[in-house]
Amino acid sequence: MAIMAGFILGFLILLTVNYQQALAGILIIFKGGLNKGLAGMGQVLYYATPIIMTGLAVGFAFKTGLFNIGASGQFSIGAFAAVYVGVNLKGLPASIHWMVALLASLLAGAIWGFLPGFLKAVRNVNEVITSIMMNYISMSAVNMLVKATVYNKYKNESLPVMASANVPKWGLDKIFPYSSMNGGILIVLIFVVLVYVILEKTTFGYELKACGFNLDAGLYAGINAKRNIVYSMMISGALSGLGGGLLYLSGSGKYIKVIDLIANEGFDGISVALLGMSQPFGILAAGIFIAYIKVGGFNLQLLNYDQEIINIIIAAIIYFSAFALLFRTRLLNLFSGREKIVSEGFVEADLAESAENKIEEGIEK
Amino acid sequence: MTGLDLLFFLFQQMMYFSMPLLIVALGGLFSERSGVVNIALEGIMVMGALAGVLFIFYMQNYTEFAGHLLLLAAVLVAGLAGLVYSLFHAYAAIHLKADQVISGTALNLASTPFAIFVGRLATTKVIGRTVQQIPFKNQFRIASVPLLGDLPLLGPMFFKNTYITSYLCLLLLIVSWVLLYKTRFGLRLRACGEHPQAADSVGINVYKMRYAGVLISGILGGIGGLVLVIPTSTNFNATVGGYGFLALAVLIFGQWNPLKVFAAAIFFGFMKTISASSSSVLFLAKLPISSEVYKMVPYIATLIVLIFSSQSSSAPQAAGQPYDQGER
After folding, report:
1. Is A179 on the interface with B (CB under 8 A)?
2. Is A124 in contact with B313 (Cβ distance < 8 A)?
3. Which of A130, B20, B51, B312 has the fewest CB atoms within 10 Å around its CB?
4. For residues A52 and A283, what is the distance between their CA atoms, to the nearest angstrom?
C-alpha cells in the first residue's frame, strides 16, 4: 500500500511537470531494469549490491534498537580501505588479493562503527548524532587520505586498483552481458544468509534482539547490554564498509571522487532497511526493488524527466510505510470491533508477509 | 589584516553560522519539549531555504520591492514552507503514532531530491539553463548599522557586515524564552513533553500541544534554512550541509534550555568559522594542516562536546513516545 501511494505521488509529479508524457514516464519506472533485458537486470543487481549491504547494516542495527544513520561514513571509509589495499599491496596471489582488500574494507567499517557504539554504551551519547558527525568526518578524512595515498590528480579521484584486486566475475558477466555485473552480488547473498543466521539462530543474535526489543528486560535477564551495543555497531559498520569495498572493487571503472559529498549509498541503505522491515531477506528484496526503480529513473531521463523524481518516490514510500502498519491495524479494528485484541497479533505477521509479496510484485512488474 | 580586524572578521563570520544554528535548535527545542523528536529539521531547513530563495529568485527584479523588505518577506515564505513540511511529520508522529525517527528520516530523504528537482525546473524556465543551484543576488548585507556601527569595539563586532536576519534570530530567541517560561502555553507545552498523561488528566489537549510544538519547530527550521543560505552563499544548492543535525547536537549540548542553547550555538558557530575561514585567515593557512582537517573540526568538536554533555541528560521524559490516550 505504501509503495502504491509512493507511485501515485510520483505519477502526480510527472503529471505536473509534463502531462503528455506522464503515462509513458510511469511505465518506464515500472519497467525499470527490464527495459534492456538481461543487461538491464545485470545493471539492477550491480546497483543493488552496495545498497543491500548498507541496508543489512542499518537493518542489523535496527534489530538491536540502534539507528545507524552513519552507514554512509562507514561505507566510504570501507571503500577507501579496499582501494588502498587494491592499489598498494603488491605481491599477493591474485586469488587472495581481492579477499584481503575486502577484508580491509570490512575492518575499516567496523572501526568506524565502533566509535558511535562505544560512546553510546559508555557515555550514553545519542548514536544518531554521533554517526552523522562521523559521516562528515569520514567524508573529509577519505578526501584527505585519497589525496595523500592513492591520488590520481588529473581526474581528482582515486587511482585504479590492480586487476587482481577486483572481485571475480565468476561467469556472471556472461549471463548478464553488457552490464557492470560481477561476483559481488554472490558475496552479498552469503552475507544476507549470514546475518539471518546470526540474528535468528544464535544466542548472540537473540541477546542483541532482546536488548533492542526491551532494554530493561534484557538487562534483567543478565545480558551485557553495553557490550552488545558496541558489537552491534561494529558488525553494522563492517557490513556497510564491505558494501563500499564491493562497489569500488567491482571492476566497473568506478573510482573514489574527491568531492564534498556524503556517499548516497548509506542513505539508500536506510530506505532499503525500512522497506525490508529489517529482515535480512526482506532487505535483499527491497534492495533489488530500489535498484530496479532507480535504473528506471535513469531511463526516465530519455523523456526529459529528472531522475530525482525516483528519490522523491522512494522517500514517499518510506514515509507512508512508517505508518502503514498502524493504519492497517486500525482499519481492521474498525471492522472487527471487539475482537481486535485477538486479531492484532496476526495482523502484524500477515503484514510482514504481504509487504514482501508487494515488493516481489513490484519486481515482477 | 591586523589582529583586531581579524577578530572583527571572525566575529562577523561567527554570527552567520551561529544564528541559523540557534534558531533551528530552538525549533528542535519546541518540538522535543512537546514530546516529539524532530529529526526532520534538516529536511525542513532545506524546504525553507528552497522556498525563501525561490521567492527571492522570482522577486528580485522588481526594484520597488527590494532590499530588506524582500528579505523579510522571504523569511515569512521560508517559515511558511517549513510549517507546511513539518505538518507531514506532525501528522505521522502525532496522529498516526508512527515511529518519529523513521518519519523524520523519510522527510529528510525527500527534501534534497525535491529541492534539486524544483531548482532545475525553476532555473530552466527563468534562465534557460538547467542547473540545480538557484542563484540570487545578495543585496541584503548591511555594511554598517547607523549609529550603532560607529561604536568602538562593539560596533564592528555586532553592527557591521551584518544581516537583518541575525537580529531577527536574537529577537526570536527572546520571544521563545518568554513563550516557554512565562506563558500558560509554554507551561502546558513542557508538561506534554514530560508527562503527557498527567497533562491530559488536568484537561490539556496533548495532541493539540504537540501539533503546536512541531509546527513552531517547522517555522523556525524553515527560517533557519534561509538564514543560513543568505549570508554564506549566492546560490542555493539543495542542501544545508548537515546543519539540521548540528542543530540537534546544539540542542543536546544546550540541555533543552533556550539560553544554554544560545551559548552552544555560539560555540558551534565559532568552530564552524574556524573551519570555513581557515584559508582566508593568514596564520591558519600557514600552518601545515590540510583544509580537510579544518573541515572536520566542527564535527569532531561536536563529538567531544557530546561525550561530556550527554551523561547528565535532561531530555524531556516523554520525547519520542507517541501519546495514546488509552494508556492513561
Report:
1. no
2. yes
3. B312
4. 6
